[in-house]
């Protein structure tokens, strides 16, 4: 099928590449000329494992092209809208890019009539698809579908090629049939439903995952006091098939672009509708306070942080990404600065982004160097290279061998045996 993808950011680019890999003929559209120029050369503007290699492959096959002009999508039967819906100052989703793209699709369609389906992939408040449909859909030649994505950063291409589920929100049978054809051969359960249900599925999934994390994080505080081990507790809980083992990892809190943004947007939406989602409010509160709680655990062991050298290992909101949006590392840096500590940081790819915000932090090329002379090392992001460390060398080179494991990823028994002080999250 001929497909256009409007917006070549993280979601759009992954969608465009994966659709081409499914065998469709795809054109990626973006207003930003520099970005399109890069993409045409097979360079990915975002860091995402495997994406650039796949991009080069589909470019060479000629099944993915790029353009700054939507006119190049005049033959496209399906047009994906993957533009950003950033958080406005009041927490609501800013839909201006989305509405502009929809209006452009309307113009393109009027100039080049054929049966087309506009697919909203961007995360949008419940009701947006219907709102857009009221502007665009004619029930005969132009349809609007909500088709949310469930991509994890660092795993986006794999998630797009092997989705956990395909959610299609379409109010017309004709549009549902187009989407079935588009995803033919992709092995994943389908949920074929209304646009509004599809939109809520996306928010509810992210809000629920955030809830699981905050539940475990709050429980880890109790676990610390009780002297129990949150990892064993999570393992025991996760074996219940009704609970499942995923997303039970206590740590310094969730970050990223999705959970923080989508939870606040859902709260905002509920408030607008006069419904209280008090549980979700608490989820956010727990997440905000988790890095602060973590720092309290550090202070229990090192009450005076002033002028102490503190190594921060990992700055990105999770491994395999350079994304620092809402990263717990930023709160921890603020806390350390307030205490007058000297910060020595390491992150394989997110360091330059943090450096822009915090030039006063010293950045190192390896975790070992960051730990040299430090009075404590804090694991904030569980990058492989921050977990597998030469412990005896680290021990010999630290001013004080104290480890604070914000991701419960260091080998607790091994490091204790090696003579380190070790504090995890909810472990003893
Ligand atoms: C998430 C959803 O997983 C994805 O389906 C959606 O499309 C976008 O939002 P992402 O933000 O890329 O994806 O990352 P994810 O792997 O879900 O992790 C989010 C945050 O939660 C990270 O900061 C991670 O460290 C944290 N996390 C995750 C935990 O603290 N504990 C866990 O058990 C799992």
UniProtKB/TrEMBL annotation:
Pfam name, any one: UDPG_MGDP_dh_C
SUPFAM superfamilies: 6-phosphogluconate dehydrogenase C-terminal domain-like, NAD(P)-binding Rossmann-fold domains, UDP-glucose/GDP-mannose dehydrogenase C-terminal domain
Active-site residues annotated for this sequence: 258
Class of this enzyme: oxidoreductase
Domain UDP-glucose/GDP-mannose dehydrogenase C-terminal: 311-412
Key words, A-Z: NAD, Oxidoreductase
Sample GO molecular function, one term: NAD binding
Annotated substrate binding sites: 150-153, 202, 247-251, 255, 318
Keyword Cytoplasm part of the UniProt annotation: no
Record-linked SMART domains: UDPG_MGDP_dh_C
Catalytic activity: UDP-alpha-D-glucose + 2 NAD(+) + H2O = UDP-alpha-D-glucuronate + 2 NADH + 3 H(+)
InterPro entries reported for this sequence: 6-PGluconate_DH-like_C_sf, NAD(P)-bd_dom_sf, UDP-Glc/GDP-Man, UDP-Glc/GDP-Man_DH_C, UDP-Glc/GDP-Man_DH_C_sf, UDP-Glc/GDP-Man_DH_dimer, UDP-Glc/GDP-Man_DH_N, UDPglc_DH_bac
Domain of life: Bacteria
Residues that, per the record, bind NAD(+): 30, 35, 85, 123, 153, 261, 325
PANTHER family cross-referenced by the UniProt entry: UDP-GLUCOSE 6-DEHYDROGENASE TUAD
Protein family per UniProt: Belongs to the UDP-glucose/GDP-mannose dehydrogenase family.
Protein name as catalogued: UDP-glucose 6-dehydrogenase
Lineage, highest ranks first: Bacteria, Bacillati, Bacillota, Bacilli, Bacillales
């Amino acid at each position: 099928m001929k497909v256009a993808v409007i917006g070549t950011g993280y979601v759009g680019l992954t969608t465009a590449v994966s659709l081409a890999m499914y065998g469709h003929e795809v054109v990626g559209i973006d207003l930003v000329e520099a970005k399109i120029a890069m993409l045409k050369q097979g360079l990915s503007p975002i860091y995402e494992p495997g994406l650039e290699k796949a991009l080069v492959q589909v470019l060479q096959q000629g099944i993915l092209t790029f353009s700054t002009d939507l006119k190049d999508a005049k033959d496209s039967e399906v047009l994906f809208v993957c533009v950003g819906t950033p958080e406005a100052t009041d927490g609501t989703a800013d839909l201006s890019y989305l509405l502009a793209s929809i209006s452009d699709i309307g113009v393109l369609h009027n100039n080049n009539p054929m049966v087309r389906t506009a697919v909203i992939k961007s995360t949008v408040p419940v009701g947006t698809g219907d709102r857009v449909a009221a502007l665009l859909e004619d029930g005969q030649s132009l349809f609007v579908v909500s088709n949310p994505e469930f991509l994890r950063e660092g795993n986006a291409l794999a998630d797009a090629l092997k989705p956990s589920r395909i959610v299609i929100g379409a109010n017309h049978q004709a549009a549902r049939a187009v989407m079935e054809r588009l995803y033919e051969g992709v092995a994943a359960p389908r949920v074929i439903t209304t646009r509004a249900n599809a939109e809520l599925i996306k928010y509810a999934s992210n809000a629920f995952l955030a809830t699981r994390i905050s539940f475990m994080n709050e429980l880890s505080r109790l676990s610390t006091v009780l002297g129990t081990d949150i990892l064993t507790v999570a393992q025991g809980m996760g074996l219940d098939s009704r609970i499942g083992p995923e997303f039970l990892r206590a740590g310094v809190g969730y970050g990223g672009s999705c959970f923080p943004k989508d939870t606040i947007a859902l709260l905002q939406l509920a408030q607008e509708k006069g419904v209280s989602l008090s549980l979700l409010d608490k989820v956010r509160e727990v997440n905000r306070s988790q890095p602060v709680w973590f720092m309290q655990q550090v202070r229990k062991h090192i009450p005076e942080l002033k002028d102490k050298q503190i190594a921060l290992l990992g700055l990105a909101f999770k491994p395999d990404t350079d994304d620092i949006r809402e990263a717990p590392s930023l709160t921890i840096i603020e806390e350390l600065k307030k205490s007058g500590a000297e910060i020595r940081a390491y992150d394989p790819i997110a360091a330059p982004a943090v450096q822009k915000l915090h030039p006063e932090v010293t950045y190192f090329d390896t975790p070992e160097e960051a730990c040299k002379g430090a009075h404590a090392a804090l694991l904030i992001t569980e990058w492989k290279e921050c977990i597998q460390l030469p412990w005896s060398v680290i021990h010999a080179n630290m001013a004080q061998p104290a480890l604070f494991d914000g991701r419960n990823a260091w080998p607790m028994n091994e490091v204790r045996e090696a003579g380190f002080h070790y504090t995890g999250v909810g472990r003893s």
